[in-house]
Amino acid sequence: MRVYFDSNLFVAFLLGQKYEAQVERALDKGIGCAFTLVSSPDVFAEVQIACQGTATLLLQKLIDDLKRAGKLEIVLRDEELTNQAVELNEKTGNKYGRNDFIHALLAKKHADLFVTNDLKFKPTANGIVTTKTIAEFLALL
Prior knowledge:
Elements: E1 2-5, H1 7-15, H2 20-31, E2 36-39, H3 41-51, H4 56-68, E3 72-74, H5 79-91, H6 98-110, E4 113-115, H7 122-126, E5 131-132, H8 134-140
Parallel strand pairs: 1-2, 1-4, 2-3, 4-5
Helix pairs in contact: 1-2, 1-3, 2-8, 5-6
C-alpha cells in the first residue's frame, strides 16, 4: 500500500503535539514494511515552516530512516497539478488553501490513500482521493 501523509501529521510527530504517538506508531509500521510513504518537497517545506526550524534535524533523520528502509517515495507536482489545485481552491472560496489541494491531488496520482488530521478538509479531500485520519489508518494496518 502506498500512503501520502499530510504535513500536519509530521508536525504533530516532530513537535510532540496531539496524535504524536499515533503518527509514530504508523511510521514504525511503515518502516517495518506495512506500507510505503509517498511524500513531496511541498510537505517537507510546510513542516519546516510550521516547526520554525526547531525540528529540522529530526525531520532529516526521519527522512533518512525511511529512505534507508526503502519506504519513502518522493513525488513532484507539475504545472497542471498546481493549476488544478488553484482551481479547486477557488471553487471552495479559498476555504482551505492551495497546498491542501496539492497534497490531495498528489495522493490521488501517486498513492492509494491520503492520511490527514485536518478534520475540516477531510470531507473535501475524500471527494478527490480516499482519505483517512491517522486513527482510521492505524485501524487498517
